Each structure stands twice: as C-alpha cells, then as structure tokens.
TrEMBL record:
<dbReference type="InterPro" id="IPR036318">
    <property type="entry name" value="FAD-bd_PCMH-like_sf"/>
</dbReference>
<dbReference type="InterPro" id="IPR016169">
    <property type="entry name" value="FAD-bd_PCMH_sub2"/>
</dbReference>
<dbReference type="InterPro" id="IPR050416">
    <property type="entry name" value="FAD-linked_Oxidoreductase"/>
</dbReference>
<comment type="similarity">
    <text>Belongs to the oxygen-dependent FAD-linked oxidoreductase family.</text>
</comment>
<dbReference type="InterPro" id="IPR006094">
    <property type="entry name" value="Oxid_FAD_bind_N"/>
</dbReference>
<keyword id="KW-0274">FAD</keyword>
<dbReference type="InterPro" id="IPR016166">
    <property type="entry name" value="FAD-bd_PCMH"/>
</dbReference>
<keyword id="KW-0285">Flavoprotein</keyword>
<dbReference type="InterPro" id="IPR016167">
    <property type="entry name" value="FAD-bd_PCMH_sub1"/>
</dbReference>
<keyword id="KW-0560">Oxidoreductase</keyword>
<dbReference type="Pfam" id="PF01565">
    <property type="entry name" value="FAD_binding_4"/>
</dbReference>
<dbReference type="InterPro" id="IPR006093">
    <property type="entry name" value="Oxy_OxRdtase_FAD_BS"/>
</dbReference>
<protein>
    <submittedName>
        <fullName>FAD-dependent oxidoreductase</fullName>
    </submittedName>
</protein>
<feature type="domain" description="FAD-binding PCMH-type">
    <location>
        <begin position="5"/>
        <end position="175"/>
    </location>
</feature>
Length: 413
C-alpha cells in the first residue's frame, strides 16, 4: 500500500470471528492501547496503520455470501469489493462499489462508495441494509433501519471510528450485463467540459468519471500521448443494452482517440485490478464542484500539463440516485453537488514527495477543493479540520453524539 513514514504497530491481530474481534477490542482497551482497523488497506491517510498500538487486521474475515432470493449480499468485515462483485456476478446481480476491486468493502461503505452504478443505485452506503458491529466495549450488536438506528445512520457515511464492522448486508440489483469501459480524447477543454455535462444530463443508468490526467504508458493509448495530458473517462451503462448507444452518443460525438467501451459482464469492469500503489507516495485533495465550464476545464488540463509526474484531476459525476437521498438521512451530507472533484499526484521517489504535495495543494486551491465540504474517503489529511469538512454542521454534531452513546473506536475518519 501507500508508503510514508514508518508506522510500527505493537500488536497485529488477525481474528476470524466477531467473537475474536470482541476479544481483541477488550484486550486493547484493558491494556490501554490505541487500536485501528484494517480491511482493504486503501486509506489515503494510512489510517489503518498506527505506531505502537493494535492493528485489527480483518483480512482473514473475507467471506461473501450471496442470497439470490433475498437480493442481499453478506460480506465479512475484511472482504474486498472485487471478490463480492465476482460472487454476485455469477447470479447476474451487483452492488455498486468503487472502480477498484482490491478496495475493502467496509472502509469504502463506511465513508460512502462512489462508482460504476452510483447514479442508478446510489452510493454503496445507500445499499447497506444491515450490519454486525463490535462496539468499543466489545459488545456485538446488530444494526439496521429498525435496530440501533442511530448507529446505522452513523455507519452510512460517518467513516471509521464508530465500532468494528464485522458483517455488512448489502442490497443487490439485477445487473445481467453492462456496456462500459474507457474512452479517451486529446486534451481539448470543450471535450472535458462537454463530456462531464453529458454524463450529468444522461439517464441514471449512466455513471462515469472523467479524468484530466498525464497519460500513462498504457498499450491502449497511442504512443504519442504517453506522458502528455489526456482526457480519459471510465463509463458504465447499466440500463437496457439497446439504449446504450443513445446514452453514449454525446460522448462519442467528440471523436475519442480510444474507445474501449463494450458490452460485458459487470465484474469485467474490474478487470485489470486497479493501480499497484505499493511503495507509492500519494497526495490527494478533494471537494465538490459544478460541471467545469471551458475556462475551468482549460485550467485543469494546464495544471496536469505542468505536473512533473503522474497527476490527475478526477471528476466523478454525481446526481441521479445519489441526489435523491436527503442530506440528513445518512452521515454522508453532500447529496446536492454536481461533481466530486479530486486532484491527486503520485511518485515512487521519496525525494519527489514534496513537489507532488505542492502540485496537489496548488491545484486544489485553484479548483476550489482545498476547503469546503469533502468526501471522507478521498481526504488527504486526517487533522480535525480535514474531518470537519467531511461531516459539517448538523451531520458532525449527530456523529459526535452517536460516538458518545456507542463509544468511539479506531482512528476516526
Ligand atoms: C486505488 C484506489 C481506488 C479507489 N477507488 C475508489 C472509488 O472508486 N470510489 C470510492 O468511493 N472510493 C475509492 N477509493 C477510496 C476508498 O474508498 C477508501 O480509501 C476506503 O477507506 C478504503 O477502504 P479499505 O477498507 O480498503 O481501507 P483501510 O485502509 O483498510 O480502511 C480505511 C478506513 O476504514 C477503517 N475500517 C476498515 N475496515 C473497517 C471495519 N471493518 N470496521 C470499522 N472500520 C474499518 C480503517 O480503520 C480506516 O480508517 C479508492 C482508494 C484507492 C487507494
């Protein structure tokens, strides 16, 4: 996973059951040791690692059970999005997670979960229908809309810090196939602006994100674009197959240089596994914006062009089912925004880390994502002022009240 300053836990616990999790939680409390939980290990702030305390590593609890009749998937607290998606896909069913199979379902769902099905089905947390949680005192409780509703509210968007989730129950939706994949264009501002606007205006069955980024040396991209700014979208149409072409026509109207969008099974959207970020130093900043106009789009492309290494401005189109949930119904308070905008830079070279951070910080302030509301799972820092951006106002107050009632455990997010 991501590199950074060394963090050396005193104890690494690898439980197999909720009862064992409870035992570890009680033992850590009795020993006065801080504890953090590790599931998929993808935290940008490396919140699932700590110095001198207990890392409760749930990766042996990676079971997934698909209840086809009840349209519900049950994932243990250490299961990955990819394993669940493959198991559900065997029945033509899906729960929407993010874009990367190796991400842990628990970490993703606790914060939100935005990906290929979000405009159709909502965020992952909107599909959480129940959970088993080990509380800070070691008690094991069931939660859902009618059981411990305050706890259930906090688990949906509150991020880490309110119990150890040992099982998640998730709604499944029939998804026999999708039409999806990558589209790429030369770095024209109007293309970036129009493509984001087109996804926002499309039926809910089209979800997608659009990147202004430094083109990686990928074989599917023309060699002349490698290392240069490019616009790359990852789209997924999950409606009737015969309606896909109409939905995608406004994107294809801009003459993509790469069009890998094709009919496939939903699990095939995760092929390739996602980036290998082992040993990589990353910086990220996030917030919410409007659909970029041409001027903003030009500034994004210019910023990427000025980066000294891998860099991306990532625009995730919100709307659809995400926007139809009330801001107070869950602990994810950011329902009405058009676009979740993040800027990220990466380097394997520790000596380049400061330059990457400076680029991210400059781009974030230029695009208005350095302060204001933010998605907890893409935050680049975990200082109180960062976390307050994720859970502003009444959401933050209610989250603090829930933690006061049930006890706080794990690094808060
Ligand atoms: C390559 C990459 C791609 C990504 N793509 C997307 C995407 O498309 N959409 C999206 O929404 N997000 C995405 N994310 C962000 C991702 O949702 C967050 O990083 C998420 O927190 C990762 O969860 P994890 O379980 O893998 O990580 P971890 O580091 O294991 O955990 C993250 C946080 O959750 C806590 N936690 C983990 N498991 C539990 C549990 N069972 N009970 C209680 N607390 C727990 C940890 O203590 C930590 O604070 C991506 C991240 C990366 C690195």
């Amino acid at each position: 996973m991501f590199a950074g300053e060394a963090r050396v836990p005193a104890v690494l616990a690898r439980p197999r059951t909720a009862a064992e999790v409870s035992g570890v939680v009680r033992a850590a409390r009795d020993a006065g040791l801080p504890l953090t939980v590790r599931s998929g290990g993808h935290s940008y702030t490396r919140a699932s690692l700590l110095d001198g305390g207990v890392v409760l590593d749930l990766r042996l609890m990676d079971g997934v059970r698909i209840d086809q009749e009840a349209r519900t998937g049950h994932a243990e607290g250490g299961a990955s999005a990819g394993a669940y998606t493959a198991a559900a896909g065997e029945h033509g069913l899906a729960t929407g997670f993010g874009d990367t199979g190796t991400v842990g379902i628990a970490g993703l769902t606790l914060g939100g979960g935005i990906g290929f099905l979000s405009r159709r089905d909502g965020l992952t947390l909107d599909n959480l229908v129940g959970a088993e949680v080990v509380l800070a005192d070691g008690e094991i409780v069931e939660t859902g809309p009618d059981q411990e509703p305050d706890l259930f509210w906090a688990l949906r968007g509150g991020g880490a810090g309110t119990g150890v989730v040992t099982r998640l129950d998730l709604r499944l939706t029939e998804t026999p196939g999708v039409v999806g994949g990558i589209l790429a264009w030369r770095p024209e501002p109007e293309v970036l602006s129009d493509v984001v606007a087109a996804i926002a205006a499309a039926p809910d069955e089209l979800s997608g994100m659009v990147n202004a980024m430094v083109a990686p040396p990928a074989p599917f991209l023309p060699g002349e674009l490698h290392g240069k700014p490019v616009i790359m979208a990852l789209v997924c149409w999950s409606g009737a197959p015969e309606a896909a072409d109409d939905a995608l026509a406004p994107l294809r109207a801009h003459a993509p240089v790469v069009d890998l969008v094709a009919a496939k099974t939903y699990p095939a959207m995760f092929e390739g596994g996602g980036p290998d970020v082992a040993g990589v130093r990353a910086a990220i900043a996030t917030g919410f914006t409007d659909v970029p106009d041409r001027e903003a789009a030009a500034a994004m492309i210019d910023a990427v062009g000025a980066a000294s290494g891998p860099a991306v401005v990532n625009l995730r189109v919100m709307g659809g089912a995400i926007g139809r949930v009330g801001a107070d119904e869950t602990a994810f308070a950011h329902r009405g925004h058009a676009v979740m905008t993040s800027v990220a830079g990466m380097t394997p070279d520790p000596e380049q880390e400061a330059a990457v951070r400076a680029w991210v910080s400059d781009a974030a302030s230029r695009f208005g994502v350095d302060d204001g509301p933010a998605y907890v799972n893409f935050l680049g820092g975990d200082a109180p002022e960062d976390l307050a951006r994720a859970h502003p106002g009444a959401t933050g107050e209610r989250l603090r009240a829930v933690r006061a009632k049930y006890g706080a455990i794990g690094a808060p997010a």
